[in-house]
Amino acid sequence: MSDKDSQGIGSMAEHLLDVNGGTLPDQIYARMVEAILRGDYVDSKKLPTESELASQFGVSRPTVREALSRLRSDGIIESRRGSGSQVVRAPGTPASSMPPIRNYSDIERYYAYRTVVESGAAAAAAEFRTADDLTTIRACLEAQTLAMEGGNKGIEDDVRFHRAIARASHNQFFVAAVETSVAPIRQFMELARSVRSKMTVERVRLVQMEHQQILDAIEKRSPADAAEATRLHILNAKRRIFDAAKLR
Asked: How many CB atoms lie within 10 A of CB 7?
């Protein structure tokens, strides 16, 4: 590979994620994206083990695990118990199940789609959730609150919160729909929160209040309230995206 090719790959990785000031998992994610683009795993497409990656990057296994979780959520790798993780899609290429988002009109359409899907998932979760589902959703919310109050973006915990609600619906179609839209959700969260190095206490409370209202409705088994709380949360999330775009 020429120096020019290497520089091109590095630029693409930086375009996919600006790691300046990012968390350690963010930086490991970016370095793994660069390695995949460089073709380091082109033969077997199989990634090294968590321990091997931790040693390679000089970080802890939990840090590597979070980076892998993000790669998995973005549809770049696939993990199977006993078989490890394999590359299934090149970074920067849209997943076949989710059209690319190219402009503001696409963002509007995406949020209209997300509103319908996630409101339905939340309503179903309110009807069919179990005690274990509630515990999982609540744990995701608490983890996100701690992360955001500590000055972190809390994006992974936010994504887990929405995925946990979809799983609590016990409807594989809601689960699949939310899973395929995870990458855009994360990208928009990155945009909305990248305009500040730290979220203000007021902003943290506002976002978490919206999440809490969804959880409360699911806990009291009120499908209508869960759907409405989700609709309002996604509407506000869209507003924060456009506000962030104006500040960049």
From this structure: 10
CA 209 to CA 141: how far, in whole Å?
10
* Amino acid identity for residue 235 in this structure: L
Closest CA to 183 of 29, 11, 45: 29
**Residue 224's Cα: distance from chain center in Å?**
26
C-alpha closest to that of 53 among 31, 37, 38, 73: 31
Rg of the chain over Cα atoms, rounded to whole angstroms, equals 18
Range 219-227 average pLDDT: 98
Q: Does residue 201 carry a pLDDT above 80?
A: no
Which residues lie across from 77 on neighbouring strands?
87
126, 218 contact by CB (below 8 A): yes
Q: With contact defined as beta carbons under 8 Å apart, do 65 and 48 qualify? A: no
Whether pTM exceeds 0.70: no
Residues in the chain: 248
> What is the per-residue pLDDT across 89-100, written as a single tens digit (0 to 9) for each?
766 655 556 777
Residue 153: which of 40, 85, 240 has the closest Cα? 240
